[in-house]
Amino acid sequence: MVNSSFKALGLLFLLLTGCRLKEPLVVLHNSCTGYTRLRSVEFPPPFIRDRLDTLGFKDSVGARDTSTSFLIDSRIVIHPEDKLWLYDLQSVFPRAEVIEGKTKGVVHVWAGVNGLAFDSAPFARRVLVLNGTQKPGLARDAAYSFNVKFGLSSLEPANADADTFTQTFLYCPSADVPLGEKLRDFLGAGEVEERTHLVDIIIIIGSDLLEKKNAEKAPDGVSIVIKKSLFEMLVFKDGKLIKTYPVALGKNPGDKQRVGDNRTPEGSFTITSIENSSSWEHDFPDDTLGPIPGAYGPWFLRLSTYASETKTGNRWSGIGIHGTHDPASIGTRASEGCIRMYNENVDSLKKMIRVGTPVRIEK
Fold first, then answer.
1. Is 16's pLDDT higher than 50?
2. Which whole number is the average pLDDT over 49-73?
3. What architecture (CATH level 2) is domain 127-215?
4. Straight-line distance from the first to the last Cα atom of the chain, in angstroms, rounded to the nearest whole number
5. How far is residue 199's CA from residue 32's CA, in Å, rounded to a whole number?
6. Does residue 5 surpass a pLDDT of 90?
7. CB-count burial class (<10 Å; 0-12, 13-18, 19+) for 292
8. Averaged pLDDT score across all residues of the chain
9. Strand ordering across the sheet containing 106-111
10. What are phi and psi of 224, to 5 degrees?
11. Where does CATH 2.40.440.10 sit in the chain?
12. CB 28, CB 60: distance < 8 Å
């Protein structure tokens, strides 16, 4: 309101003195090239140019910002004598940071995602998750979890402009603030902020999410370490070794690199489910016997193997600890990537663990 009154007084003064007020040239810079690429959005969107034209501004396109790819709020660099026009510019670029410029008659706008305001009609709302930490895989894990839990489609997860975010932020269009609050509660960390011009929900993962994960203790003090070089599973209780079991591993040595490479992944995981597998069958691709009853033994202890947990930064599925129909394979490379145990041993292990028990797989 102050800016509007100031502008009106300035216009009145210029009219009384016979001077003509000349609008500054607006130079538009793309500060969210990562987002416009993901969304295949033209820059600047026609909406911005039409709005500036309606307000009487001439515009041109300047060099893109090489320092940012996912800037959320725009920056307006404006000379003090041109601030008569700031109110109009802020109506096009809401929540923009205002920086004092040195060149009178030229305003530089470094446009962020909230300044795009492109036509949302052809676009279904998506979620973009950005990793603002040094821990790889967090954005991919969150995007996958949102899809499974809430059925939300995600744009390709990416790294944020910096890896030093200490807080998680969820930027939401006005209508999606309630959904953003649900996503925040699901993550267990973060701050929801409304942005009126957004089409998508944009989430920047910060280190507060890592701190939350690290604070979660091993249930009942039990943890598991699998040493691949020894073909052994070590079970600890409150840091003390209480049991050692022999195991079989993936047919091929080394850390898992791709689906179907028959390697056992390395990293720090948790048990996500304990499943009765006594009636399961498996058709091994390297034999002609067909489906084998009891191939997984009595129990299948499914492991999380998210991208943020594996050493490679890739997410895997279907990896677990289970029994076997072939006890002679224990102590060898025999599986398609899972950890095999004697059936009586997986029975014994099942009594000591529960969902959430940490499992570290080492070389």
1. no
2. 93
3. 2-Layer Sandwich (3.30)
4. 65
5. 14
6. no
7. middle
8. 89
9. 59-61, 25-30, 106-111, 75-78, 97-100
10. -125, 135
11. 219-362
12. yes
The residue with tokens 């676009």 is 123
Output phi, psi for 27, to 5 deg. -100, 120
Write down the residue that tokens 């893109």 correspond to. Answer: 64
The tokens describing 355, both together, are 């969902």
Residue type, 194: E
Q: Running DSSP on this structure, what letter comes out for residue 310? A: B
The mean pLDDT value for 325-341 works out to 96
**Which tokens belong to 208?**
């507060």
Average pLDDT over every residue of 39-53: 89
The helix/strand/coil state of 324 is coil
Sheet with 169-172, edge to edge strand ranges: 158-159, 127-131, 201-205, 169-172, 191-194
Condensed to tens digits (0 to 9), the pLDDT of residues 96-143 reads 999 999 999 999 999 999 988 766 545 678 999 999 998 888 899 999
For the chain, where do the domains classified as CATH 3.30.70 start and end?
A: 127-215
Widest pairwise Cα distance in the chain: 100
Instruction: Find tokens 């909406």 and name the residue.
Output: 47
Residue closest to 131 by CA, chosen among 139, 142, 123: 139
Q: What is the CATH number of domain 219-362?
A: 2.40.440.10
d(CA 127, CA 137): 16
**Residues 89 and 107 sit within 8 Å (Cβ to Cβ):** yes
